[in-house]
Amino acid sequence: MKRSMFFFCIASMAAAPAATLSAQADVSVATVAANVAAKRAVDAPSWSKEVSRIMQAKCQVCHTPGSIAPMVLVTYQDAKKFADKIKARVATRRMPPWHLDKSVGIREYKNDRSLSDAEINTIVTWVDNGAPEGDAKDAPPPMTLPDPAIWQYAEKFGQPDLIVKSAPYTVAPSGQDKWWRPEVDMGLTEERWVRAIEIKPSVPLGKRVVHHVLTTLQQDEGPMLQGLASSAMDHSPGARPMGAGLFMEWALGKAGEIFNDDAGKLLLPGAKLRWEVHYYAIGQEVKDDQVEIGVWYYPKGYKPKNRTILNMFNIAAGSELDIPPGQKTITQNFITLRGPARIENFQPHMHMRGKAAMMEAVYPDGRREVLSHVNNFQWNWHVNYIYADHVAPLLPKGTMLVFTAWHDNTKDNASNPDPEQWVGWGDRTVDEMAHVWVDVTYLEQDDFDKKVADRKKAALVKP
Ligand code: HEC
């Protein structure tokens, strides 16, 4: 930004003397200026032509009546009222919620809802010009907006095959955050492979009181995890045994998880879900709240080649996280892959002092590569960045994943409730955390080799 401003200044300084020389009289300067202004008015973006279309494509899914955003951005009158705020949020890349550094690492994501630089420029120019409506005849017809109470994946897969609810919990109007941990039987009598999962807090109040949801799978796997690639069974020394793991994690800004065609999660008969719902008070009682999880199965008898495991990789936990008042800190952690694997997503989790989080790969031959870097982290948005199929990292056995988290406990951090406080690890949002949620699909060695060869052929080589 600074850089282009600098070039802009040089350019206008160079242009100024030439313009002055060619101007014969004040009148012609004024005419030129008037012509420029007239041309700008014609080119200038208007609500009807450009801005409404961007809002439909990138904002209205949340900024509609009954959805999750605090205000509606549907009509010109709605948007005009909030023009300055819109410019501020868009120019700083806080809205739409997509806080990734787009200049490094993997560039293609399945759920990318960010604005392009050109779209940001259009919105900013529109606001700077006084947010004109333009000709109402140019406006697109209003969008039919999805009902926030319905399953978002229903459009793709139909209604869920299985819906499980957390046990009811009443959130008091005020008080400290609460963690509700009921265990619920999923009612399974046979083994099923899962292709997609969605978590849905109730609408409208549940969406306002639920900060995050974890669901952990409790099932009898026998001595070894079932359905896992044999190449991942070769435990590296010191590696903890893997459990069935998390079924799904949810936080504001996320709907669910859709597994790659060749992978899924495995549910065994008798499976139970252990819920952890993090509630916070909103000044009014929310009675008997329940969170729902929707599950879509692969057809009966179909077994995908691979089992995906959702990992919580800690960057720093417990006493490792030590953030003195007025300081910025960096913490790191390293995880070595026990088998060849495909990484499906990146979803960092921090709280109010969280600023940035990065995942890199150090390959067994020593090469190092940034996979994803969230450099504009917003604590109230837990966006899951899901890699597009043809770029999802394929990492050989022994690759080290390097995770880095940055916290900012100074007054520069607008989300910081108190830069004078020492901050350590803890559950409350005023405490800190630093971990990432990553779905890892371990692959058989020959399958991995083939996938790598196919990518090489397509000249989209990762490793
Ligand atoms: C995924 C849902 C979602 C999308 C998409 C989204 N927003 Fe938001 N927006 C929210 C929520 C929720 C809030 C309130 C929480 C917050 O401030 O982060 C918000 C807050 C805002 C605010 C601040 C409101 C205030 O009173 O301070 C502005 C401005 C805004 N959004 C504009 C936009 C624009 C413009 C777009 C599209 C370019 C957009 N948003 C896309 C959900 C969304």
Walkthrough of the structure:
The protein is 22% helix and 29% strand. The protein is α+β, with helices and mostly antiparallel strands and 463 residues long. The chain has 3 domains: 44-148, no CATH class; 160-304, Sandwich (Jelly Rolls); 306-463, Jelly Rolls (Sandwich), CATH 2.60.120.230. Strands 1, 5, 8, 9, 12, 13, 16, 17, 20, 21 and 24 form an 11-stranded mixed beta sheet that branches. Strands 3, 4, 6, 7 and 10 form a 5-stranded antiparallel beta sheet that branches. A 4-stranded antiparallel beta sheet has the order 15-22-18-19, with no helix packed on it. A hairpin with a 5-residue loop joins strand 18 and strand 19 (368-374). The radius of gyration is 25 Å and the shape is globular. The two termini are 33 Å apart.
Topology:
Layout: H1 2-22, H2 26-43, H3 47-58, H4 76-81, H5 83-91, H6 117-128, H7 154-157, E1 162-165, E2 169-171, E3 178-180, E4 183-185, E5 192-200, H8 205-209, E6 210-218, E7 246-251, E8 256-258, E9 263-267, E10 272-279, E11 286-289, E12 292-297, E13 306-316, E14 322-323, E15 328-336, E16 341-343, E17 345-349, E18 354-362, E19 368-374, E20 385-386, E21 394-395, E22 400-408, E23 423-424, E24 434-442, H9 445-457
Helix pairs in contact: 3-6, 5-6
Helix content: 10-25%
- What is the terminal separation in angstroms? 33 Å
From the coordinates shown, what is the CATH architecture of the largest domain?
Sandwich
User: Gyration radius, to the nearest Å?
Assistant: 25 Å
The number of helical runs is: 9
Number of strands: 24
Overall structural class, as computed from helix and strand content, comes to: alpha+beta
What is the CATH first-level class name of the largest domain?
A: Mainly Beta
Domain module tally: 3
Shape: globular
Classify the beta-strand content into a percent band: 25-35%
Instruction: Kindly identify the CATH topology of the largest domain.
Output: Jelly Rolls
Largest sheet: 11 strands, mixed
Mean pLDDT value: 86
Low-confidence region ranges: 1-25, 235-240
Bound molecules: heme C
